[in-house]
Amino acid sequence: MNELLLYFFRAHSALRGVGLAVTLLLFTQCGGASPADEAVAEEEVHARAAVTVGRVQPDTVTDVLHLSAVTAYPAKDVLRATTTGYLIAPVPVLGQRVGAGQTVFTLQTKESRTLHLDKLTGDPRLHFSGIIRIPSPRAGVIATVDKLAGDYVQDGEQLGTVYDQTRFGFQLDVPVTQLRYVRTGQHCRITLPDGRVLEGVVAEALPAADVSIQTQRYTIRPVGKVPQLPENLAVTVDLDKTAPQVANTLPREAVLTDETQTNFWVMRLLNDSTAVKVPVKTGPEQNGRVVVLSPKFSPHDRIVLTGNYGLEDTAAVKLTR
Asked: Considering the entire predicted model, what is its pTM?
């Protein structure tokens, strides 16, 4: 009986020793992080995307139609030779201003040059000197000079052109799908290639459409002083499609899209370390800001502005200032 009690006592002591060893092992593994574990944790912190955030703000925006146009001088006169002969000096130069009825080109017939009739004009019996003067039918500026002094020209050959600068304007081709947004008398903004902006008004619609590209041409007259511009200069014309309205907007860089630009979304912060993907429906863009039609964000919602490119849904982030 005593031997049996001694056996159970020794077995109980052995089990207590094993339990103590297991307890010490678990304590060693769970009680503190090793240097390697600390390095992994620190790497995870550094792997978070550094982002900046902002909030939606109300802005007054207008839906704008952007179209291309070109400068044009619709009132132009082509000066042609009225007979066969030689062009004599002086010949006008490009950019020279001429008045209505002013002689621009002077021709001498070949008979006159052969017989020297131009030197016999003092004879009152000689009523034809062989000198033909070609005037400008209207005041304007010399746009092209196609012949030089001494050139032999044929009857009807083009000598140059005169542009009426008072009729200067822009030719705007409007797609037929956008005609409802353009009307005569409508004001618009004309942006030149160098960034200057001119005010303009839609003057008239030409009663013809381009069959191949289905556009209708309008004439736009500039308002106020206009710089000297060449013909066929490409410009941009902005016309307001809607009246100004107040809407919530975000900076352009806050709104992300796919390669087809059919789906749009923003990254919204759930907390200081997590951003989630929120699909949005966008409206017009103006001055670098995009209208967000839906959903309706609260003024307290924090939207990722920078560092959002390539972030997946429920991404780990780190706020920066």
From this structure: 0.56
